[in-house]
Design brief:
The chain is of the alpha+beta class. It contains 27 helices and twelve strands.
Length: 654
């Protein structure tokens, strides 16, 4: 008995809820009459005529409007052919479809496909529907949908989007999306604000902003059209143009002709065609055809035809001058509000100035980054060349060995951060050992023969490249940077620098400090400076020059290996990696002053800034930029053969 009572109460509750829902649905205004009012246009689905129907649905204020538009865009809206009523269609099986009413949400039955017509909006209509849906999506509970709506508005802004955008700002809970809405509202107000004061206020609010979207908004406000008239009109004139100065005379007269303010000039071909069309008895206006080779006779014949009204009259230079002097030429703003265009022009001028300053800053950061790379690549060469006077043509291959060491470490240590931390000391150890072996086996036997040293190290360079190809192949190997080095530090829309470049710059500073510490605060540094300045006296004082040379060469090679790890993070790791930097390394050392760390730093800065400056002037041809840079360095060396900071000691004497 108890179960029966429970069932009765449950049934009663269900019945009450259904009645309540039905009453609520009945109280809600129906959207079907609106669809029927535009039934013919919707059924035709033409991009040219569908606009008013979509606008009527979106602007109806009915709660069903969003669902109708979404179902329509998804191609799930069907029309029953018998009465033209629109429904939500869902395929059941075969060619049978279940139809659901938009207003009541009730299933009205199942119908055969032949009794229905599916609405399939093309891409153009779907774009219009998408724009109409923006006002609903701006307040969608899903933040992704709201973000998509903002992107849709930014891609295709219009005046009717401004009101719903403003209405959605107060209820926006996401701080980032709210900031985007506020910014987009200001941009739309600049273009579509209801009053000049409102638009000017929006321009002033965004003054100094370097965003590309702001410049893209201001440029259409300042769009102009070039016109000519007998008198200057009372319009929003951007500039009055004087023929022959601000506007070429030919262009000015062509503008008069296009505006039906002057007679078009007759070209030579047009004159010949007109004369040929009026040949009568071997003559044209009394002039024999044989004499028409003479320009004066052609002009005479054409003038006679013009006097008879058979051809358009000739326009002389005097006529052109008279027409130009009788008219005014000007650029007129398409936007009629002069205060708005004035504010926009001032704002854009200030922005362009700031953009120029920031572009210079961005170029400086790029040059500084490039200089740090060159410094890191050349510091080892500066050590070996300065102390030992050895031109090590295999220096680039030590850079390559360091990069491959980092790659091998990452094969065993998948954590990219840990692998780079391990790769740096390991690359130093590998290339240090290789440098010591090279110095002991080859270099130390050739100290007094610099030409043979150059040839020997060049041969070693080729051998190391071939060995790398045999081991790792010719394909570029990845040396992946840690995730925290992805992306870039973006100061604004103009200035940015990648985190990898920042890390390399920091690494270069660290090695500068480490090198200075070794040279100024350690016994090895003291011995190295002694051997550099006077190897004979250093030997008499108990210093072993051979040991110092060995350790110095190993130190320079080890630093090159670490440079290889850093360079491999953004460059392709191949057997030719070192070849890409050996020339710049030698230029850095020679320009800065061999064997002097401060000279190497100055040389790297000079070459980095010079190369970026030349690339900025000729951005389409980086090879030409490098050629100009080499020519400049050759000229520079003619005036300062010992570099920016000359070295004192054995290397200077050599």
């Amino acid at each position: 008995m108890r179960h029966i009572h429970v069932a009765i109460w449950a049934f009663a509750a269900l019945l009450i809820s259904c009645v309540s829902l039905s009453a609520e649905t009945a109280d809600r205004p129906a959207i079907q009459p609106l669809l029927q009012a535009h039934q013919a246009v919707i059924a035709k689905s033409s991009r040219k005529t569908i606009g008013p129907a979509i606008d009527a649905i979106a602007g109806s204020g009915l709660p069903q409007a969003q669902e109708v538009l979404q179902v329509w865009a998804a191609k799930n809206m069907w029309m029953r052919k018998s009465d033209g009523v629109f429904f939500i269609g869902e395929k059941v099986e075969g060619k049978t479809y279940r139809l659901t009413d938009f207003d009541s949400g009730a299933v009205v039955g199942e119908f055969q496909k032949g009794d229905l017509k599916q609405l399939k909006p093309n891409s153009g209509i779907r774009a219009l529907i998408g724009t109409a849906l923006v006002q609903f999506q701006l307040s969608d509970p899903d933040p992704v949908a709201r973000a998509d709506a903002l992107q849709s508005i930014a891609r295709d802004p219009s005046a009717d989007q401004l009101t719903p955008l403003r209405g959605s700002i107060a209820s926006e809970a996401d701080p980032e999306l709210k900031a985007q809405k506020l910014r987009l509202e200001r941009l739309l107000t600049i273009r579509f604000g209801a009053s000049d004061a409102e638009r000017i206020s929006a321009i002033e609010d965004m003054a100094g902003d370097l965003g590309v979207d702001l410049r893209a908004t201001l440029n259409p406000v300042l769009a102009t059209t070039r016109e000519a008239a007998t008198a200057l009109p009372s319009a929003n004139i951007a500039e009055v143009l004087i023929p022959g100065e601000e506007i070429p005379r030919d262009e000015a007269y062509a503008l008069l002709v296009a505006s039906d303010l002057a007679q078009a000039q007759i070209s030579s071909d047009e004159m010949r065609t007109a004369l040929a069309a009026h040949i009568d008895g071997g003559r044209v206006a009394g002039v024999p055809v044989a004499q028409l080779n003479d320009p004066a006779m052609r002009a005479r014949a054409y003038a006679s035809l013009a006097a008879e009204g058979k051809v358009p009259p000739l326009v002389s230079d005097a006529d052109v001058a008279a027409s130009l002097s009788a008219h005014v030429f000007y650029d007129r703003y398409l936007d009629p509000a002069a205060p708005v265009t004035g504010a926009a022009a001032k704002a854009l001028k200030d922005i362009e100035l700031k953009v120029g300053v920031n572009q210079a800053l961005d170029l400086g950061l790029d040059a500084l980054s490039l200089a740090s790379i060159y410094f890191l690549a050349a510091i080892g060469l500066a050590i070996t060349f300065g102390v030992m006077g050895v031109i090590n043509m295999a220096h680039g291959e030590f850079i390559m060995m360091g990069a491959y060491t980092g790659y091998v470490v990452q094969q065993f240590v998948p954590d990219h951060t840990l692998s780079i931390i391990l790769a740096i000391p390991l690359a130093f150890a590998v290339t240090f050992a290789a440098g010591v072996a090279m110095e002991r086996l080859v270099i130390r036997h050739l100290y007094s023969r610099p030409l043979e040293t150059l040839l020997a190290t060049f041969g070693i360079s080729i051998a190391l490249q071939q060995l790398a190809k045999n081991i790792f192949g010719t394909q570029a190997r990845p040396l992946t940077a840690p995730g925290w080095l992805d992306g870039a530090w973006v100061m604004n829309d103009v200035v940015s620098i990648s985190y990898i470049r920042i890390a390399i710059f920091v690494l270069a500073l660290i090695f500068l400090c480490v090198f200075l510490f070794i040279m100024k605060r350690t016994r090895l540094g003291l011995d190295t400076r002694a051997v550099t300045q006077n190897p004979g006296m250093a030997a008499q004082m108990g210093i072993n020059p051979g040991r110092v040379n060995m350790l110095t060469f190993g130190l320079g090679s080890g630093i090159a290996g670490i440079a290889g790890v850093a360079i491999g993070l953004f460059a392709k790791v191949t057997s030719e990696l070192g070849s890409d930097y050996i020339v710049q390394s030698f230029m850095t050392v020679v320009v800065g002053g061999v064997g002097n760390i401060w000279g190497t730093l100055a040389g790297a800065a000079m070459i980095g800034f010079l190369q970026k400056g030349i690339e900025w002037m000729n951005p389409s041809n980086t090879l030409a930029a490098q050629t100009y840079m080499i020519i400049f360095i050759i000229i520079f060396i003619q005036f300062r053969p010992r570099g920016i900071i000359a070295l004192k000691g054995r290397a200077a004497g050599d």
